[in-house]
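task queued by scheduler; priority normal; single chain, no ligands, no partner chains; default sampling; output format set to structure tokens
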Amino acid sequence: MHFLCARPTRSAVLKDDVAMSVNIHESWKEHLKDEFAQPYFKALTEFVKNEYATHTCYPKGRDIFAAFDRSPFDKTQVVIIGQDPYHGPDQANGLCFSVKDGIPHPPSLVNIFKELEADIGKPYPKSGNLEAWADQGVLLLNATLTVRANQAGSHQNKGWEIFTDAVIKKLSEKKEGLVFLLWGGFAKKKAALIDKHKHYVLTSGHPSPLSANRGYWFGNKHFSKANEILAQNGKPPINW
């Protein structure tokens, strides 16, 4: 068995050499079951199990699929795409750009909150945990779902990108009226996977200081624009 056991619960266990609880909502299992059976995903599973058995990796095993667990397929309304998890201790919680409660905000998240405050007037929050966004149907998807401690990008090109590209394609194919927020060059490339006749794609620079300080991030108003689009389509706005 791989990451996901065919059981009628939301929890699954990654067995063999690593005892790792993995949570993913049942709605995603149904839509992605063919992907889980692909040879590349089986190889990816073995790679991740070995990495977690022999190195410190993030996020915790149970949080690898947190984006899918907190934002069920049918409830997903907005998609934000990141690159890979934070690689520092206790930062990553399985949601792109998000950190656990009590963890200092990384620079990109600081700029996200600054833009949010300027855009809709929401006060800068104490916690950098974005679970409340995910619970409202914001899929906070990293292209790569795992990483070695202190080694950014260490799990790239192992199969995760194939999987998450398939997720984007599945969303584009099966749903309508999604709002995709693509921040930075990496995320913008994912626009090629999205049917723009069915969905809305908003792009801007990345919230990292390098991009933001050059004027490519601040003022994009993506949070208010996303809510305007949702309202136009009869959907409730996101309480950012």
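post-processing summary
- The chain has one domain: 26-232.
- The CA atoms of residues 176 and 198 lie 5 Å apart.
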